[in-house]
Design a protein that fits this description.
CATH superfamily of the largest domain: Phosphoenolpyruvate-binding domains
Shape: elongated
Number of strands: 8
Bound molecules: 3-methyl-2-oxobutanoic acid
Order of helices and strands: HEHEHHEHEHEHEHEEHHH
Distance between the termini: 69 Å
Radius of gyration: 24 Å
Amino acid sequence: MPKKTILDFKIMASQNEKIAMLTAYDYPSASILEKAEIDIILVGDSLGMVVLGYDSTVPVTMEEMLHHTKAVRRGAPNTFIVTDLPFLSYATSQDALLNAGRLIKEGNADAVKLEGGEYYADTVRTLTKAGIPVVGHIGLTPQTASQLGGYKVQGKDLESAITLNKDALILEKAGIIMLVLEAIPKQLAEKITMELSVPTIGIGAGEMCSGQVLVWHDLMGLFDKFVPKFVKQYESLGTLALEAVKSYSKDVKESAFPIDKHSFSLSDEILNSLYNKKQNLEE
Ligand code: KIV
């Protein structure tokens, strides 16, 4: 399968063909996503929470995003990759240009994602003019969750719904190629999706978005610190992994692993000589 392009995603959205995006942070998961022909891989800064064990996405660094983007690219050479710009890496347009440039040039990402509305329109313009495709992200923006009063649904009252609607239109005008809508009422997501010509990707934003995104660890049941309402766990890999590790530990302690089929052998001839040699040395 050839790598899908920004144009493909626009056409898919205009023809109501849904876009499937999923996060990946390493080589093995990226390889699985590419085999499954997922449309877009997001190297999300959710990395900080689900892989690195931070309490939020705030501490995630550029070096961490780069390191994981490179691994994902090695696992998925033919999939469109979007990488998150981490917190404070795009506080000024100059920072954004430098850091987004690194994710594209060194990390081999196809696009970068940044969180925020109207305030970031200039940054989006700067990156777009420089040839860097930008994905927007509004609604619940985890990097600034503390300012939003926690991980809460956004756009529920008229004023905030109007602001989000306006942000979406302004970001589109500034040049975004796609917009992630996180944790907003589905009717608002539908209105925004209808008004934009670029695809919307929802996470907790209902079924009317152009596509959906989930976090790999949520989908696989590998992260149970908290499970938001919008998550569908397709597997319980955390439970399976726990059972596998317990079985391994038990086998080791009971000498049930390794057995012959996991071991290498010397021929009898070499073995005898080896023991004889030892004896000779002792004589
Ligand atoms: O970091 C991430 O995984 C994200 C998704 C939740 C959209 O931004």
